[in-house]
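Hey, can you fold this?
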Amino acid sequence: MKIEDFVGQTPKLRLEQYFSGRTYAWGLFQDRFGKVRRQFQVTIDGHWDGDVLTLDERFLYNDGQREQRVWSIRRPQDDTYTGTAADVIGEARGHIAGNALNWQYQMQLPVDDKVWHVRFNDWMWLQPGGVLINKAKVSKWGFELGEVTLFFSKQPPLGETP
């Protein structure tokens, strides 16, 4: 798959527009054999100041664990994004076309009592109605460890007031 495959696809994705304000997400991690290992939900507060998109992500995992990640994302060119976060090694880089974004980065991932350096190859697609689908391959030393699937929405979970 290449980002160019999505030129002209709609609705057009712009991270700074989509993630401004509050966004909700639900996801899971499957190991390389397809077994669901973790499920989670995320509340994201985003702010675009005209130069930097700040995303404050708060994760709640099905085992009760909580985690926070704060991204600082820039758009140096019309079709390019770069981003940093405390647990991201170096800089994340993304390319956008039409309704899709391909986002790649290396992250420090706690596993038991160790920290692994893993690579994420994220693909996001904006759908009609405002749902954003995200699939990410996670690998280490070129070997696939698993896949993360996420669905983002501007609509709060049932029973929650925005």
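Oh, and this one too while you're at it.
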Amino acid sequence: MINKLKALTILVIGYILVGCSTNTLPPASLHQSTTVDVSSYKYLIGAGDAVNIFVWRNPEVSGTFVVRPDGMITTSLVEDIPVSGKTPTELAREIEKILGTYLREPVVTVTVNNFVGPFSEQVRVIGEAAQPQSISYVQNMTLLDVMISVGGLTEFADGNDAKLVRIENGTQKQYDIYIEDLLKNGEISANVDVLPGDIIVIPETWF
């Protein structure tokens, strides 16, 4: 009976796969970071961040709130305040306007804990890194800092054929980076600035 049921299940799945037409999904949307150079970096709030909102002389509406996956928070007075992609200062001014409906001239300060940031602000390393992962960007981060965070290269990596992918003016651009020269030969000239949203692709060597 069990074998017959398995056979029937396989038959049904095969029928579904044959009957369905194959379509190609569109490519992922390009999300450009607001940081265009190292000196212009400002931290942006993202899902998973813990946002501490302090309203002067109004402790009952102050508190710490975790940003939901949809980029919003809910406070004691206002539901669904969009916060993702804003700086703490921008959010403080926006909350002052919102609370102005309920309070007289509110003064708000916003601080952030558990820094995560939006995906568009994270640095992603894929391919032959020892520990491929997404990294929360830190001001003045360099390629060397990123490679230390991911544990360096695997023994199969072609570090000098790696690419850095960056969105500039809505266009995806690739830059050559020489990770092996940097890590194994100590060539500091191969160390370059990394910006929020950069993707580092490390291929496997052919031999």
